[in-house]
Every structure is written in C-alpha cells, then in structure tokens.
C-alpha cells in the first residue's frame, strides 16, 4: 500500500513537473537587447530570469523590481522604474515576446498595490537627504563615526547622477600618482581648474577641492 502511494506520488509530481515550460524572448533596453527566460506553469508566469543584457550595473535592482511586479500582478501593465525607463520597457517587451505562444493569459490591467503599512516614528542622529555620491558618502562616514543614520532617497533607486558619471574623478598628488612616479600638486590642479572655470570658481571651495580630493580617492579605494 505504502509503495503504491509512493509510485502514485512520484507520478503526480512528474506530471506537475511536466507542466512547467520555459520561453525566451528579447526586448530593446538602453544599451542593447535584453534577453529573458520566462518559466510558465499552469498558464501563469512563475519565474523571470534576465539571461543577457548590456545595461549598466545600477539597473540590477530595477530589473528585479520589474520582474517581481510582473510576477505578482501577472500583467505587463506596470509602471516603469524612474531612472531605468528603457530597461523597464526592454524587460516588458522581452517578457511579452517570450510568452506570446505560451498560452499565458495576462491581466490586462495590473491591480495596483495598496499601501497599508503603518507609519511609525523613528529616531535617529542624522538624516541625509539624497542618495547620490555625496549623500551616500556622508551617510557611510556618519555611520562609521558611530551615528545612527537615515538616508532618504526620492527615486526608486539610489545613485542619482553619480550612477551616470563614468568618465573619471579628478584629484592631484594622489597615492596612485605617487606609486606611478607622477609628479602633480594641488596648486597645478587649482590653476588648471580655475582656468577651466574662466576664473569664476569660488576660490575657497576650489582650494578645499584641490587640496583634499586625494583623500577622497583613498577613501573610495578603502571602500573597494
Ligand atoms: C552623464 C554624466 C556624466 C558625468 N561624468 C562625470 C565624470 O566622469 N566625472 C565626474 O567627476 N563627474 C561626472 N559627472 C558629474 C557627477 O555625476 C556629479 O557631479 C555628481 O554625481 C553629483 O553627486 P551628488 O551626490 O551631489 O548628486 P546626485 O548623484 O545627483 O544625487 C542627488 C540625489 O538626491 C536625490 N534627491 C533630490 N532631491 C531629493 C529630495 N527632496 N528627497 C530625497 N532625495 C532627493 C536625487 O534623486 C539623487 O539621487 C557626470 C554627470 C552626468 C549626468
């Protein structure tokens, strides 16, 4: 009897396994095509995996959020993530194409989530407003110095414009330059920046920048 039910059970589970299917599709993101693999069971989307993309690293969380929302709403009628609009569109397009022949019937309109989280008072030492490079650095430094910190960011992702800054970071007389035997000075950096700013720069701020940015480089390196 026990053996018989075991056989029955494995038969049932293999039937369930057999109903799971995978479909792939691609859509246009910001930097190129985004390819997804969509798992479907009983005409419902059960998993979405981004298998290939050219998007910037900071869109990773946006991708996960879009995937989670498609899964929970079983709909493509979901809001794009501000700051990662093209990536969001690309994923929705890819999922739509992947499931085109899957038999999945999507909800035309996604049920909007209602927020019934209870608001509670929080206590902290420091509130940092804005999670770009400046805010994140301030929050990390404050935390490292023993303060309790709350960081507020208005966008769905942290990073701000700092996410897009990929050219380089200026500093003079850095530890890296020293290692490479490159001679440089805060004075050269100051004069160069003043020239670039057509002498309109605020001298005391520029002095601070040019004399202390080398420490920012060391700090960033220490954070990996
Ligand atoms: C395309 C591009 C390329 C760049 N390349 C370089 C480069 O190569 N080298 C370089 O040194 N600089 C570069 N820059 C400039 C550099 O990115 C910025 O100077 C720097 O990122 C500014 O950092 P920040 O933290 O002050 O501002 P941001 O990174 O913009 O952060 C501000 C944050 O505050 C949030 N915020 C605003 N108001 C509120 C509010 N009321 N409540 C909550 N949150 C709020 C914003 O959403 C944002 O996340 C580049 C900029 C761009 C756009």
Strand line-up in the sheet with most strands: 1-2-3
Provide the number of structural domains: 3
CATH topology of the largest domain: Sufe protein. Chain: A
Helix content: 40-55%
* Rg for CA atoms: 26 Å
Q: Main beta sheet: strand number and arrangement?
A: 3 strands, antiparallel
Q: Overall 3D geometry?
A: elongated
Instruction: Give the second-level CATH assignment, the architecture of the largest domain.
Output: Alpha-Beta Complex
CATH class of the largest domain: Alpha Beta
> What would you call the structural class?
alpha+beta
Average of per-residue pLDDT values:
90
Termini gap: 61 Å
Bound molecules: flavin-adenine dinucleotide
What does it look like?
The protein has helices at residues 2-18, 60-73, 85-98, 133-144, 175-180, 186-196, 203-222; strands at 21-28, 33-41, 44-52, 126-129, 149-152. The protein is an alpha+beta fold. It has 3 domains: 20-98, Alpha-Beta Complex (Sufe protein. Chain: A), CATH 3.90.1010.20; 121-167, no CATH class; 169-224, no CATH class. Strands 1-2-3 form a 3-stranded antiparallel beta sheet. Strands 4-5 form a two-stranded parallel ribbon. Helix 2 (60-73) crosses helix 3 (85-98) and helix 6 (186-196) crosses helix 7 (203-222). Residues 9-16 have low confidence and may be disordered. Bound molecules: flavin-adenine dinucleotide. The site of flavin-adenine dinucleotide (FAD) has 20 residues, from helix 4.
